[in-house]
Amino acid sequence: MMKRRMRFDIWTFVLIAAWVILIALLIWPLSSVLHASLIDNETGAFSLTHYVQIATIKAYQRAIGNTLLAGFGGMAGALILGVTLAFVTTRFHIYGRALIQTLAVVALVSPPFIGAYAWIVLFGASGVVRKGLATIGISIPPLYGAAGVILVFAFKFFPHVFLITSGALAAINRSVEEAAESLGVSPTKRLFTITFPLILPAISASALLTFVLSIADFGTPRIIGRDFNVLATEAFNLYGSEVGGNPGMASALSIVLIILSMIVVFGQRWVLRKNVYHSNLIKKPERKRAHGLKALGLHVLAYAIVLIGALPAIIVVLFSFRRTSGPVFQPGLSLQSYERVISTVSDPIWNTLIFSSIAVVAIVITGTLIGYLISRRPGIATGALDALLMVPYVVPGIVMGIAFITRFNEPPLALTGTGLIIIMAVFVRRLPYSARSVAAALKQVGPNLEDAAVSLGYSPGKAFLKVTVPLIVPGIMAGALMSFVTAMNELSSSLVLYVGSTITMPVRIYLSVMDGEYGTASALSTILLTMTVAAVYAAFHLSGRKESALL
Amino acid sequence: MADLKIQGLAKSYKDVRVLESIDLDIASGEFFTLLGPSGCGKTTLLRTIAGFQHQDRGEIVVNGERIDHKPAHKRDIGMVFQDYAIFPHLTVAENVAFGLKARALPKSEIEARVAESLKMVRLDGYQNRLPAEMSGGQQQRIGLARAMAIRPTLLLMDEPLSNLDAKLRIELREDIRDIQRRLGITTIYVTHDQEEALAVSDRICVMNKGNVEQIGTPFEIYRKPLRKFAASFVGTMNFLPGRIEGGRLIVGTQSAASPANESGPVEVAIRPENVQLSLGHADSEAIALKGEVLKVTFLGREAHYTLKTEVGEVVAQVADPEHDFIEMEGRPVEVRLPLSKIVLFRSNGDVIGAGQA
């Protein structure tokens, strides 16, 4: 008789380490927010008063309704744009695919706040485009309120959908679609009965992502929404106000926001409850060559989506070269905005680069290991870890920032004001994206490959490094890329956590917009944009697979 | 060269017992096949030997040394997979060299072994190809070369041919057998294809529901089944209800002197090729049933007759059929079951006596 041994390998250690990290950087800080929402601001005693107020005061109820509207609206818009673009570019021969991908990335990274500002410049009450159209007799409503917010979300977040689903679309076994075709299913019907169900994991993951991004975003509703108040803006105002601030109420609203996101997360898991498709012998889909009007239509469609998405970024770049006088743009070109940035505010550039690089290295290593655990070592501890990883998805940056500043304020962990706290916040916020993209890539790699390596004499850890890692490098690169881009553009948590010496570019841009220094903001945004695009191309180049790094 | 002993190996998944106390004794250099329907536990047994799964109880001993406490990568066991598991990002040569690099062999030795292994599976010249450019049969040859290159103590094969088409399957199984003989490597082969098992094995272990039903040479398994399961799973077998009474074997209204001295209900089993049709052959002791030809299936070198008798349908196989035999559908015929070829099973599935199938 032999007793069953506990098998302790490298993955057991990874599992324990992952738990320690998430407890320290996630559960413990966030518990402070829950705690604050449950105590009375004055007396410090346990109280449900904040939640009672949310249930009774109309403004809060409207904020919840608006949040849901913005979330589902932004999600639907981003899905339509993103899936359409992914389908057109993976299934048809489109000229300038690299350009389309670049523009999509540009749209993805179009800096926060100033992006929303650019939309107003174009479509606001006195927007350039709106006025232009008015002179030729076309009148469109100004881009304010719910419709404007949803439209901006759709064009801001569709690149996420595009990147995630085009990878899945390119990995569908062509025979499956051919089989459907041979069974007499029309191409359109096949799309909805075969293709979309097969990429349901990707579609639902990106739907979830865009929903959560939409409801956590407070810049867009703040600038474009006008009186369209959402939970994020309410919570931000209550946290941020020097006077009339109400941390308890803000915490309670944050908790409600988190709960809304959680519901959607579980909804997505329910949709995916039995969707695990393994495919070993992949026959890759072909790109068809469309002709005549159809080809023209497809090109117009693809380019329209990415060009409109990239428009705010383009506007920002153009404006950064305009002559300014204080907050007012003057006719004529000038480099004076850049001169001012370089002479006065070059610190944010270095901070952003250093913080993002450190965070991304940590994210990629940890995310790859955790992604592997999730997809290959199912178990109670891993399942719970996977569930816990959903938390950063649903916690708005502002909430995370407040949670960190509350918990890491006193010795022995007095990290407030350091760069480390900003890095940690970015790390824990973006870790799930990396873990998820690795887990998704792993689903495409048959587990037998690793068994084969083990039978040939490699330890499980080495087998992973030698066989699995090279195969999921496109997935890892895509994850790293997304993480780096989002880390450089992280605003909301940094806004809470920065001090003078650790200010980052997005924070600087935000402050410039608020101070009316549009020239500086435009120049800084352009520099940020350039750095981001450079990072994207470096990633393409390093991975050696130009397409698969992004797709 | 290595022998393998397995003692009392058992494994359950939750409440389901996948392996019930398996005992095996495999000689050095033997080609040993685990044969059984899907879900019989053969793949679990193989993966447990490889170390990818762990038994609840029992021992695995190679060359007198217990290996069941070793992790998979230290067992020095070559494995060939059903889905090939060829590393798609490595060239053919890199795939074969993969296991050699783990052993930190000198470069020249690696090159020599890769060349030798590829030659063995008739893939020399393909060194720099990527697996995606190669057919399924070629990919499995890479898999075989890769497993052989490390000169493992044991070679395990998990249904290596089941993803290939029929012709390739026969070709590759001959190659596998030849290579295995030449190198004398102890091999455990899993398949659900009984013809494949008969063709390649030194010995076959028929498994069912986590149990060993019978272990024997292909001849023993086919001709001398010990259990009804083995008789029915390997090859085709007619089963007819009968009983033994007063030293007579009674089938329907017919009877003959019983080959076994028991009494009670029995199942009468006979292979289609041993069923005789018609006319002559009065010399041997046999049960003669009246029948009618329901259907004739002509297969070239043989024909299958489906016959209706008073105790049920019987399939008979006739080698090298004559022209007029083909046109017999609907005709009456005498169906003779020679006693020397009959196997009798008790109702619990055990064989009675030692007849010959």
UniProtKB/TrEMBL annotation, chain A:
Transmembrane segments: 68-88, 100-123, 143-170, 191-216, 249-272, 293-321, 353-375, 387-405, 411-428, 463-485, 491-511, 523-542
Keyword Glycoprotein attached: no
InterPro entries per record: MetI-like, MetI-like_sf
UniProt keyword annotation of Membrane present: yes
Keywords of the record: Cell inner membrane, Cell membrane, Membrane, Transmembrane, Transmembrane helix, Transport
SUPFAM superfamilies per the UniProt record, alphabetical: MetI-like
Membrane topology: Multi-pass membrane protein
Location relative to the cell: Cell inner membrane; Cell membrane
A Pfam entry, by short name: BPD_transp_1
GO CC terms: plasma membrane
Domain ABC transmembrane type-1: 64-268, 349-539
GO BP annotations, alphabetical order: transmembrane transport
Gene3D superfamilies: MetI-like
Family membership: Belongs to the binding-protein-dependent transport system permease family.
Protein name per its UniProtKB record: Iron(III) transport system permease protein
Automatic annotation (TrEMBL), chain B:
GO molecular function, one term: ATP binding
Membrane topology (UniProt): Peripheral membrane protein
Domain of life: Bacteria
Main location: membrane
Keyword Cell division: no
Keywords assigned: ATP-binding, Nucleotide-binding, Transport
Residue stretches making up the ABC transporter domain: 4-234
Record's subcellular location: Cell inner membrane
SMART domains: AAA
Cellular component GO terms, alphabetical: ATP-binding cassette (ABC) transporter complex
KW Cytoplasm (keyword) present: no
Family statement: Belongs to the ABC transporter superfamily.
Protein's UniProt name: Iron(III) transport system ATP-binding protein
Protein source organism: Microvirga guangxiensis
